[in-house]
Amino acid sequence: MELHKFYSSLAIRNDRKIVLLLIDGLGGLSHKDYSYKTELEYANHPNLDRLASIGSTGMLTPVLHGVTPGSGPAHLALFGLDPISFQIGRGVLEALGIGIVPEPTDVLARGNFCTVDDQGYIIDRRAGRISTLVSEERLTLLRDIRLPGSEIELHAVRDHRFVLRLKGMDLSGDIANTDPGTIFEKPKAAKALTPRAESTASLVNTFVEQALDRLKGQPPANALVLRGFSMLPNISGLQELYGLRSAALAIYPMYKGLARAVGMEILECGQTFSDQLRALETHWERYDYFFIHYKYTDSSGEDGDFLSKVNHIETLDNSIEPLVRLDPAVLAITGDHSTPAALKSHSWHPIPLLLVSPTCRRDGSAAFTETVCARGALGHIESKYLMGLLLAHALRLEKFGA
Amino acid sequence: MELHKFYSSLAIRNDRKIVLLLIDGLGGLSHKDYSYKTELEYANHPNLDRLASIGSTGMLTPVLHGVTPGSGPAHLALFGLDPISFQIGRGVLEALGIGIVPEPTDVLARGNFCTVDDQGYIIDRRAGRISTLVSEERLTLLRDIRLPGSEIELHAVRDHRFVLRLKGMDLSGDIANTDPGTIFEKPKAAKALTPRAESTASLVNTFVEQALDRLKGQPPANALVLRGFSMLPNISGLQELYGLRSAALAIYPMYKGLARAVGMEILECGQTFSDQLRALETHWERYDYFFIHYKYTDSSGEDGDFLSKVNHIETLDNSIEPLVRLDPAVLAITGDHSTPAALKSHSWHPIPLLLVSPTCRRDGSAAFTETVCARGALGHIESKYLMGLLLAHALRLEKFGA
Predict the structure, then answer these.
(1) Structure pTM?
(2) Chain B residues with beta carbon closer than 8 angstroms to that of A379
């Protein structure tokens, strides 16, 4: 049985509240310029340490040992799904990233404007990196293209990039890229990878033909290529699976989209962590499960800025009191993956996990750091099991077997 | 998806080098005669301890909790294969152990000379443990037996034991033992366990009939039985899976054979650990992944000789400097399984693991011992995941999902 269905089969309802505070890219790496400490070890965070002293700690492996996850699989795992079975395609992810919440019947693709020569061969795959504004103008030329029985939406992303959203019935995302991935070739026709996708491929080709016609003679953006055709994976929501009324307090579109994909409501929550916690207080009574997404630790890790990541951890620690005061039945504080400043990228290293609940086994953790959590009572577990742990600590899973 | 294929799907190439130093039977057991210390705790190994202080430690479970592995599964797991899915049959293992490197199309079996009475009933399953020399003479009588469309090779092992290798096309190892496993029965005919194996079984029976004819009237070795029919599992090599140019520095034939089974090149490397490290230096530039096999800890564990195992650990520690000086991007030091002197055999106990790399999270391990490693930052993982970790630390795995 699939993991989430197994947990679902045991789920019962009550009024105990669960909060998942996700500190994006939380895990760090020993840094030679900072006495071989990690960002979390170097930062001063007395409030998190105090929570560790009354909670249980452990480590999460996002996907599998050694595997560095993108945001998609890292979040789906934390929401209780097997991140290898449920993959979010690049078209869908690009759409989520700009705030589009696709329907399960939509097909999404990433688009690039490009430059072709007189014979139709691509000579610049990025159309000279035209501005978003120019892209927007070009998209306007294409928006009234009509397709039989379905509808096209076009959304500018940044520079030469856009998202194509195809809405209709019986669509399929099993379509190969039209982007040849190199210059001196022509954009390819959309090709169905499965019989089910034949009609969708034909719609895409109709769109592309008309689009090329309209873009002709207007270099540098005189053609387009598409890739990453995909649909939302068929995911049941947290309400349906576990009876959880769930809500997301996320500032960035990507994370709102990922939360929406598992059925969370997206709440307005301002721009800072304190804003997010104010929104949490406001909506406290209305939901059972809150996902709070704190982005800035990941960004500074990606920038390779150790001290900025330290700073963002300290800011969070300074502002966390209102959350503690709400006294959720279960509070989990962790990350989706590691983003060590030393690597300037996501990494495969496990993520520290802190769980505070009246039902947690206090393990005497003296601090919230990677090294302490690696020795914590929760052990080292895969992220996909966290949802089961949260439900259990909220006494929301009944006994299995007699 | 199978584990190694999942890792393979993420593999990228670079020039970072990986060294796996395998200390055979490394794990030990608290011994009542030595203050309840393990061999590794009792031994003095300042160099390994120093590596632990700048690395990450953890524990490997060879197959599953409680399962004592043979050398075959223990090594395959360390090479990244699920040791339960990929089993190496006894015939193949016996062949590997005497330095035969089978082709994937060969069928291998273990053979015993035995003694039968006038009616053909077995009265001594080991033919009075005839010497290897006598065995060799008997095998000479059988070597010119010809089979239609295939070829027989016979290799003496030790005493009354030999290996039968059948070379040809469309052979199958799905054949039941001809050895009844007891005396006062006759050797059985070779019986196919699947339809595909019918023709192979018939070849084996042709061989056995002619062999019995030639051995007749020459007790004690006047008959033979065969068991453990098997073929190499169909394993992709490390080059094909991960783009790793890989080489083994192993002294004993069995380990050369296991390394060969996953596509490693077998390098000449003398008789001592220092010889092995000299060979490592010589070939350093030519490969990406080196497997160094250190045997003597296992042998002394099997002998129940605690102090000899301690000694071999100290010898290795004393000689390790040239390896450290080569400064591989990733150095993993571990065992294939535990061989506690207190048990005089392989055991199921997890194995200490030490990983040194610029990308490892230093966990402040003060020593390289079972107890320290059990609390290390890498946690407790199954051996089959080590390959993914090694690739990750060598930055040879790309991000999974966007």
Answers:
(1) 0.90
(2) 379-380
